[in-house]
């Protein structure tokens, strides 16, 4: 369920960007009706829209609106490359949205791997399920990659536009007027306080939007397996094991990601050897057929 949630998050994110792009007219009207004037931050720079968060959603939105001529100010709390294991497998529909948004090159130079479907394993039996891609161009497929590399490339793409300003800072409050958010107050990485105003100020944390009120039923532990081959090349692999699923998929030309779902909110300790023992005694015997 956690793996499915990660996939749903990234797909809903791209649906959100595309939907916003399709609603350009409504955004135009909203901006024009917002006192019909240019909004400026305390630095004197004029802005049409402020985006809080430069993850996948925020970066794609910044690029899309910036390409349409909007002056965009993105405030992201940490512009270093993220080190996370979620959102590493983009489905074909997500890749098609990248193409429509002009962002497909964000997966072309990060050693991303094409994914054509899944292999399922249970009780010693297996089957392969391929994506129905027969009617699409040969380049259309899923993509798997290092999440952090993808996010950094998306940020670079957005920041390459002259009217998109990417700034590292932590938003401390939203500035409202007559029930409408008009801007944000934030601190820069040096601790300086600033205010920024714009007719539109969306919050682009898909993780917060989707999972804020969801109880955590389990935790994923991620391993990177180097120079290892999967039984079915360019496919994700799902092992329906006990007590919960185990996932494998390529994240580069030399690395395979293994995600072990561990039930409960307490993860076995790495420092005292509990994690290593769990992986060796519970997980390894159920995936021995992957060792090539």
UniProtKB/TrEMBL annotation:
GO terms for cellular component: endoplasmic reticulum; membrane. It catalyses: squalene + reduced [NADPH--hemoprotein reductase] + O2 = (S)-2,3-epoxysqualene + oxidized [NADPH--hemoprotein reductase] + H2O + H(+). Pathway: Terpene metabolism; lanosterol biosynthesis; lanosterol from farnesyl diphosphate: step 2/3. Catalyzes the stereospecific oxidation of squalene to (S)-2,3-epoxysqualene, and is considered to be a rate-limiting enzyme in steroid biosynthesis. Gene3D superfamilies: FAD/NAD(P)-binding domain. It comes from the Eukaryota. Its EC number is 1.14.14.17. It is an enzyme of class 1 (oxidoreductase). Residues 48-78 form the FAD dependent oxidoreductase domain. Residues 213-287 form the Squalene epoxidase domain. Belongs to the squalene monooxygenase family. It is found in: Membrane. It comes from Citrus x changshan-huyou. This is Squalene monooxygenase.
């Amino acid at each position: 369920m956690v793996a499915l949630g990660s996939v749903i998050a990234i797909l809903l994110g791209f649906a959100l960007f595309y939907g916003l792009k399709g609603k350009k007219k409504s955004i135009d009207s909203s901006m024009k009706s917002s006192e019909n004037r240019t909004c400026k931050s305390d630095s004197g720079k004029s802005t049409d829209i402020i985006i809080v968060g430069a993850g996948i959603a925020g970066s794609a939105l910044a690029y899309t609106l910036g390409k349409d001529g909007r002056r965009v100010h993105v405030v992201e709390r940490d512009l270093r490359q993220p080190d996370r294991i979620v959102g590493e497998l983009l489905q074909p529909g997500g890749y098609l949205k990248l193409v429509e948004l002009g962002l497909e090159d964000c997966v072309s130079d990060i050693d991303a791997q094409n994914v054509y479907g899944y292999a399922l394993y249970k009780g010693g039996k297996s089957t392969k399920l391929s994506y129905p891609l027969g009617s699409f161009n040969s380049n259309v497929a899923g993509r798997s990659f290092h999440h952090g590399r993808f996010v950094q490339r998306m940020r670079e793409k957005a920041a390459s536009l002259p009217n998109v300003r990417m700034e590292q800072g932590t938003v401390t409050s939203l500035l409202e007027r007559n029930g409408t958010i008009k801007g944000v107050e934030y601190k820069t990485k040096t601790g300086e306080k600033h205010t920024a105003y714009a007719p539109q100020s969306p919050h682009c944390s898909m993780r917060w939007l989707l999972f804020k009120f969801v109880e955590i039923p389990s935790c994923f532990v991620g391993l990177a397996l180097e120079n290892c081959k999967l039984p079915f090349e360019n496919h994700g692999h799902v092992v329906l094991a006990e007590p919960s699923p185990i996932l494998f998929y390529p994240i580069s030309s030399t690395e395979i990601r293994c995600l072990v779902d561990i039930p409960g909110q307490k993860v076995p300790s790495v420092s005292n050897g509990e994690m290593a023992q769990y992986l060796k005694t519970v997980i390894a015997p159920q995936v021995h057929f992957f060792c090539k």
